[in-house]
């Protein structure tokens, strides 16, 4: 049973200066960043309030004036311009751990990052939704905002266990339907499966702003194994008996090439791509994505 | 110096090397299966790691060395000292042709000695006939261990004895021209055969016939000296026929002093049966008496008592009986009597055995030390398997 992927206070403090920013919205209309919550003209009714001098006369609800003989201004909740979608890869390969930290899986790191993003979105008043590809139990929470939505997401994330393989297109149909056009999609995956890259590319092709965080184990980065090892692939079940020292150089070269190829492929689609190694703090990839670039 | 194995079959013990190898051969435990999602980037050409390995290789090595040393110990290694032998000595048997000896020794750095009492130098005068076999043994016994004996002998050897000469040294047996055969004696004066007879002279024709037969055969001539019983015996009488039953004391003394005599009508006598009558009764015996010999007849020397006098073989048998044992043959062909290696000396002679230095003791010490080390190392189990 995994611990609740709560954002620690330390990480939460470091998140304070981060803002979820859609590239498209940033500085687009000259009004600055998207407001977290603003009231004004809109479709969704929010509240009535007493007229104050300076309010536009056309916003006065005349029917209510007729009933109550007072001026009330009808306020509507304006839609947040940002809708953060968290797409977690929960296939079996996300069960990968580092030898130094055998209880901290890639999925755990993905959950933590997702929790951080949810906290950010909540703080900014943005909407957020979470979906998992693969994994048990199936997780697909439609976008919502507010603390209750956050708690629902956190509980669902806590219950998520990695299993299975990348789902087929048929299983992903509800996901496509739930994605709004202006969504900011954050894909958290190891991207070992080409299908994950495909999904990111299709989302980007469909006009969503896609951000990808590739989760890497420190073992995969450094290959610190010595002597004989028996490795098995959690998804395919393939098993190899290797002499670690002999394969290390070749593996690092091939794996590095694969990572570089992935970064190029995603960049070609306009996808912002960062890597997160499990021994880094979880806010590091977010800082690379959303933080202010420091000179 | 060279290295030899005295018992090379001991090396079969090297087969025991398989034992520690089998003991130390272990199958590496399967490493725990590890999840590794990035498996597909590990090169597929990588050979799988070998799974059989030797446990505690240093101990194994020590055990192999120990077993190898034991096998070597069983094979009995030795150093052969191949230092040049001391100056060879050559012995020349008397009778060897001097020129032939020099020809055989041409260019060789050897000391030449006569094979004679005291082993005089070859430059000295040739010695007389010698007990050759005895001198050979003496030379063998006196020679230093490393000396290679060279013996030059003439074609015919004398002075041998009944035993084949066996020497502890390696011997080079060179046969050269010459002989030890004594020069044929000049025609000796006839051998005097005295016949003393009484009144009865019936035996005389048979004796005369025998002497005539002897003289006709080319042997040493025999001079017959007939006379009455009273006639004195000449001093050079070798043989005597006393044709009377009574043998006087003088004749008996003469016989005991070395005379060979034929006596008649002796009744029972000692000696080997010489002739038997038709019934198998021994009628004549020959045997030694004192230093002389006696052919004693039971009856008279006449066909009635001794039918064999009529045989053609009578003269020869009588002569053989009178002469007694023929001297043992003393001449032999040199090539047939080459000394043999003494029993107990290995092939190559005792020469090799003396220069051989067995390494058993040192190797045994090495084995003991190795065993000690092995025990120490085996008892010290490392905390973690290396």
Structure description:
The complex is a heterodimer of chains A (295) and B (386). Chain A has 295 residues and is of the alpha/beta class. Chain A folds into two domains: 9-25 and 81-290, Rossmann fold (3-Layer(aba) Sandwich); 39-77, no CATH class. Chain A is 34% helix and 24% strand. Chain A is built from nine helices and 13 strands. In chain A, the strands form four sheets. A six-stranded mixed sheet of chain A has the order 8-7-4-9-10-13, with helices on both faces. Chain A has a three-stranded antiparallel sheet with strand order 1-3-2, with helices on one face. In chain A, helix 3 (106-124) runs antiparallel to helix 4. Chain A is elongated and about 85 Å long. By secondary structure, chain B is an alpha/beta fold. Chain B folds into three domains: 2-30 and 52-80 and 356-379, no CATH class; 89-181 and 331-343; 191-323, Rossmann fold, CATH 3.40.50. Helices cover 26% and strands 23% of the residues of chain B. Chain B has nine helices and 21 strands. Chain B has helices at residues 18-24, 57-74, 98-104, 132-142, 204-216, 249-256, 314-323, 349-355, 360-379, and strands at 2-5, 25-27, 33-35, 52-54, 77-80, 89-92, 111-114, 149-153, 156-157, 166-167, 171-175, 191-197, 222-228, 237-243, 260-263, 272-276, 282-289, 292-297, 332-333, 340-341, 356-358. A seven-stranded mixed sheet of chain B has the order 13-12-14-15-18-17-16. In chain B, helix 2 (57-74) packs antiparallel against helix 9 and helix 5 (204-216) crosses helix 7. Chain B starts with a strand and ends in a 7-residue tail after the last helix. In chain B, 25% of the residues are buried. The A-B interface holds A 93, 95-97, 190, 192, 217, 219-220, 227-235, 238-243, 246-247, 250-251, 254-255, 258 and B 28, 30-43, 46-49, 51.
Brief account:
The complex is a heterodimer of chains A (295) and B (386). Chain A is of the alpha/beta class and 295 residues long.
